[in-house]
């Protein structure tokens, strides 16, 4: 019986030693040199690239009470957690970022036309995620209408 155990241990010892050496073999470690470049034709995911920017878009949704109410509701659900309920204070998630997300007050919105705001909501930018796959086009335009009235 002891001979069989010795034979099994002798046969298994190379496998056991290989397990010890596995940690020391050359391999790619994330965030350590050498940093590998992305394969050609891959999709960037750094958050700095933006999707197709369509300039000169005209808001097809009238800024009536229904659109403004929908925009306010969408803002509270999707935007307020970072940008804040008011321009004076960022939301609970936005306060964790450095720098904090910009206030979406009248001054910032006034400097941008509707198509630029719509593109920012649709495609995202920086750390802001795109909302084109979460909100319909009409909902994004209602959000633009609401941002125009927000103080």
The CATH class of the domain at 65-83 and 91-149, by name, is: Mainly Alpha
How many E-type strands? Answer: 0
Separate helix tally = 6
CA-atom Rg in angstroms: 27 Å
Could you state the CATH homologous superfamily of the domain at 65-83 and 91-149?
A: Cytochrome c-like domain
* Biggest sheet record: none
Overall 3D form? elongated
Give me the secondary-structure topology.
Blueprint: H1 2-21, H2 65-78, H3 80-83, H4 106-110, H5 114-123, H6 137-149
Question: What would your notes on this structure say?
Answer:
The structure is a single chain. This protein has 151 residues and is mostly helical. Helices cover 44% and strands 0% of the residues. The chain has a domain of 78 residues: Cytochrome Bc1 Complex, Chain D, domain 2 (Orthogonal Bundle). The protein is elongated. The mean pLDDT is 80.
List the defining traits of the structure above:
about 150 residues, Cytochrome Bc1 Complex, Chain D, domain 2, single chain, about 45% helix
Quick rundown:
The chain has 151 residues and is an all-alpha fold. Helix content is 44%, strand content 0%.
